Amino acid sequence: MRFDIISVLPGLLESPFAHSILQRAQKKGIAEIHVHNLRDHSTNKHKSVDDYPYGGGSGMVMMIEPFAACIDMLKAERDYDEIIFMTPDGVTLDQGIANQLSTVQNIIILCGHYKGIDQRIRDLYVTRELSIGDYVLSGGELPAAVLVDAVVRLIPGVLSDETSALSDSFQGELLDAPVYTRPADWKGHKVPDILLSGNTPQIEKWRFEQSVERTRQRRPDLLDE
Ligand code: ADE
Questions:
Q1: From the CA of 89, how far away is ligand 1's center (Å)?
Q2: Domain definitions of the chain by residue range
Q3: Which of 3, 31, 113, 127 could be joined to 25 by an S-S link, Cβ 3.0–4.6 Å?
Q4: Ligand 1 centroid to 137 CA: how many Å?
């Protein structure tokens, strides 16, 4: 699977992709992640990528030409399944969307800044607009990193224990049960006896009950669905 991310701040995206699971997925050749500097595709001599909004108002708007030039360059090389714009007014990313996206081949992600991007980019190029939650960040880079992480870890072969993604909170309709590791007693705070019992069916039953209880307390909306 291949991601092409278009950004004015490519440096912001270096670290998230250079560690842990995302790094491993790239080393294994399961995921390719390319970050493109939008400024390299500016079509004017000042290398600008934004301009004043028509109609007035505060803030700058990202221009259509640099995005169009970069997207057209990429599309000349291969077909893309999705061109995704990260924006707080998009559809909220959830596990179902991450699952869907993990089955496609090539994705372009556009990161916005300033007041927004020229509406024509959204109308003419973008196939999907995604938000990572109801709060406003300074740009689309961190949301893009969140999206790539959520998707890449679902591709078969990325996680060493393939079942671990399947048992994540949200992968079913329930939140995860609490987990513990050694020591069994830390300053009098003990691990629940059942987990030390070796009785696998009883442990599974306990975990399921804990999952239901945690979901009921924290996310009753998930049980309604
Ligand atoms: N850009 C700025 N804030 C964002 C958010 N919450 N989700 C996606 N993209 C964004």
A1: 8
A2: 2-152, 169-224
A3: 31
A4: 5
In 49-100, at which residue ranges do the beta strands (DSSP E only) sit?
50-51, 61-62, 82-92
pLDDT in tens, the chain (225 residues): 999 999 999 999 999 999 999 999 999 999 999 999 999 999 889 999 999 999 999 999 999 999 999 999 999 999 999 999 999 999 999 999 999 999 999 999 999 998 899 999 999 999 999 999 999 999 999 999 999 999 999 999 999 875 567 667 776 789 999 999 999 999 999 999 999 999 999 999 999 999 999 999 999 999 987
Core vs surface per residue 145-160: b (16+ CB within 10 A) or e: bbbbbbbbbbbeebbe
The residue written with tokens 């961190």 in the block is 142
111 beta partners: 86
Rg (CA), the chain: 22
Q: What separation in Å is there between the alpha carbon of 188 and the centre of ligand 1?
A: 44
223 CA from centroid of ligand 1 (Å): 27
Q: Check: pTM over 0.90? Answer yes or no.
A: yes
Question: With a 6 A CB cut-off, is 93 part of the ligand 1 pocket?
Answer: no
> Is 84's C-beta closer than 6 angstroms to any atom of ligand 1?
no
Q: Is 147 in the pocket of ligand 1 (CB under 6 A)?
A: no
The fold for domain 169-224 equals: Trp Operon Repressor; Chain A (1.10.1270)
CATH value of 2-152 in 3.40.1280.10, 3.40.630.30, 3.40.50.1820, 3.20.20.70: 3.40.1280.10
